[in-house]
Amino acid sequence: MTGADRLALSAPIEAPDAPVIEIASPTRRDEARSALAVATALRDADVPVRDVAVAVRDLDPYEEPLFRAALRHGIAPVFWTQLRVTRTRPYALVESVCEALAGEAVDREALLRPLEIRWSPAAPPGSDTQPTEWPIEPEAIHRVRESLPDGSRSIPEWIEVIEAIDATEGVDDRFRRFAQWLEDSPAPEPASVASLLGEVIEGYADRGLPETKAADAPALLDTETDARAVVRVRTLVRQLRRKFADRLDEGTLERSWDAAADLAGEIATQRPGRREHSNARALDVFEANDVWALDVPYVIAVGLTAEEWPRPTRSALPPEFQEAVLRGGEGSETLAPRPAWVGGRDRDQFVDALRAAGDCVVVTRHTRTAGGDDVARSPLLDHVETRRVSEASRRRLVGTDRELPPALREVVGDGTESGAAAEEGP
User: Fold this and answer.
1) Cα–Cα distance measured from residue 414 to residue 406, given in angstroms and rounded to the nearest whole number
2) 327-362, pLDDT tens digit by residue?
3) Which CATH number fits domain 3-82+279-424: 3.30.450.20, 3.40.50.300, 3.40.50.10490, 2.30.30.240?
């Protein structure tokens, strides 16, 4: 690989056909407000909301401020995020049940964990009413934890301990019923794993999910995540039966609940396809890796800072060495550079965001952290010509009148100025 080839990894980005307008805001929250103010102002200018999309390098730090900004501007956002199912309560419940069933003995923490995550018995077949005593309230679980002795025991031994404790100490019959359910659970076969874990997730859907909704904020973000996780874990359990059987036939997996839990983790961490159905009246918010096939008139690319997009390289090799390899310095001709050293993946996603827009790209960034430290502009923006919006124009944009900046107003067609870029200034 020649020096030129190496540096091609960071070659200039081809200018997009659509104009690029840059908006800098003081903080991340201000940036989110600016981005959603652009979407709202475009809607007010008769641009259909379906003609606007927001792209973010990583939604984790931006989903909450974008959602709050959307509520402020009266927009319903649809976040096309990858559901991290292993971080959800329904998945944790399945995992905790496997842990309680694994091995010859469990301690009290492993025994009680499924109850903490709202384990409930399956509803009787044909029953239309849900038992009101499930899931067990956290206060009762806490009292039982204080009453149960330390140390690991088998499930039959735990049943004896629970039965021996006086009910006045807070150990009611529900704990014995749960321990008995564990004792009656079948051996881990493909069919029994699927049926038992399916029973667990259906019990959560019937009685655990309503608990989430009752404690949720009006926006119901936690309820939505919980409901999506229930659907995903149902699918996971069906896949687990087939994959567990295949691995047993191959002889690559032991017949145990531990192995079932590990296999469930493998399936859960595979990144599935789309998780949500788009709403025709909602604003789509995508992660950058999902915009490659997008075709929409207006794209609002959020987070164009040196810390967000591209993401700084996590490498043990010093930057000076990386630069020497990229340039083919003496002694490094035979070394292959990593595309990540120059943000290759992030750059490609940035190019995808530029190409997705038919009429205009609006790039946003923030200039300060929450602690007041300066945040540098993304080096990706050095490769394209942008029309920078002044702070005064930004303030008018996020104000009550939601006035489009001159550069963007010219694109939409509501303005007549031809020198919008010059008026805006740096």
Assistant:
1) 9
2) 555 555 555 555 444 446 788 888 889 999 999 999
3) 3.40.50.300
